[in-house]
Design goal:
The protein has 148 residues and is mainly alpha-helical. It has 3 domains: 54 residues, no CATH class; 30 residues, no CATH class; 47 residues. 44% of the residues lie in helices and 7% in strands.
Length: 148
């Protein structure tokens, strides 16, 4: 990985690297430095290392989880693990994202503006995920509504 870094590393950060035990040897150090270079804020120019087991202390904001706190100004849900609230599982987030995508596409699963394209997965993968989650397939749901 080649990244251009123009900034500084504080003495405190270098000391943290030096003091850490590094059970994974030089590969673990390499991963910490690489991850830090990827996520660092270019505007500030100061590199902060996130050591294994530490939280990055970030807020993740996206319109997915009903279990998260709602921000009415942006119409997004904000997940903040430091506040001790329920952190949704990947399965919960994935199911909610699939539901939201199907709502956005009005149930259309195929094509350029279909759910499978927006989600970046093959139609058969989307269909299998929906079946595993117990989500109704849009066409099957429509057939059930017409037959009742």
């Amino acid at each position: 990985l080649k990244l251009n870094f123009r900034g500084s590393v504080s003495e405190k950060e270098i000391r943290r690297l030096y003091d850490y035990d590094w059970p994974g040897n030089v590969r673990e150090l390499d991963h910490v430095v690489e991850r830090s270079l990827i996520i660092h804020d270019n505007d500030k120019g100061i590199l902060h290392f996130v050591l294994p087991g530490e939280s990055m202390g970030v807020m993740i904001s996206f319109p997915l989880s009903s279990a998260a706190e709602r921000n009415d100004k942006t119409n997004e849900f904000v997940l903040n693990p430091s506040e001790g609230g329920h952190w949704p599982t990947l399965k919960e987030v994935e199911e909610r994202h699939i539901r939201e995508t199907l709502k956005k596409t009005k149930g259309k699963m195929l094509g350029v503006d279909g759910a499978s394209t927006l989600l970046g997965i093959h139609y058969s993968t989307l269909r299998a995920k929906m079946q595993n989650m117990g989500l109704p397939l849009p066409r099957e749901a429509q057939r059930k509504n017409f037959s009742s």
